[in-house]
């Protein structure tokens, strides 16, 4: 761990940094899974979903950057290569064989929901560890992930 003048004890930072690192891995994985959907979606809602999935990827990329910067602000090293993210991510592997828009929306919704749950767990864990700022950071991410989940799920909830 790097030296820092931040007023959080090393023991607090030792608890919080691994939580941040785990969510960094998940966020990088989620970003690339959203890009997988963006690149491969087909069907009558192509353009709407193509653009939505790209927006999701961009938003998640911003969260990954925020998480990584918090790790380094706390004196840690942000490990954010694709290989590390793939090895550490807790998200399910994205189904590569799908093409239909609703299938991509369902797959991405599942992963957004899983990431949202992990982030909510991180809110509590970092708060209990004594780092209200990181807990607040995760609260902000949680709200935005829930919003993106709503946007994606809307494509699955239409009345027929």
Plain-language structure description:
With 160 residues, the protein is mainly alpha-helical. It has one domain: Ferritin, core subunit, four-helix bundle (Ferritin), CATH 1.20.1260. It contains 5 helices and no strands. It has helices at 10-40, 46-73, 82-88, 101-129, 132-153. Helix 1 (10-40) crosses helix 3. The longest helix has 31 residues, at 10-40. The mean pLDDT is 96.
Name the CATH superfamily classification: Ferritin, core subunit, four-helix bundle
Shape descriptor reads elongated
The CA-CA distance between the termini, in Å, is: 56 Å
**Integer average pLDDT:** 96
Radius of gyration: 17 Å
- In CATH, the architecture is Up-down Bundle
Q: Indicate the low-confidence ranges by residue numbers.
A: none
In short:
This protein is mostly helical and 160 residues long. The protein has helices spanning 10-40, 46-73, 82-88, 101-129, 132-153.
State the main characteristics.
Ferritin; 160 residues; single chain; 73% helix
List the SSEs and their pairings:
Blueprint: H1 10-40, H2 46-73, H3 82-88, H4 101-129, H5 132-153
Helix pairs in contact: 1-2, 1-3, 1-4, 2-5, 4-5
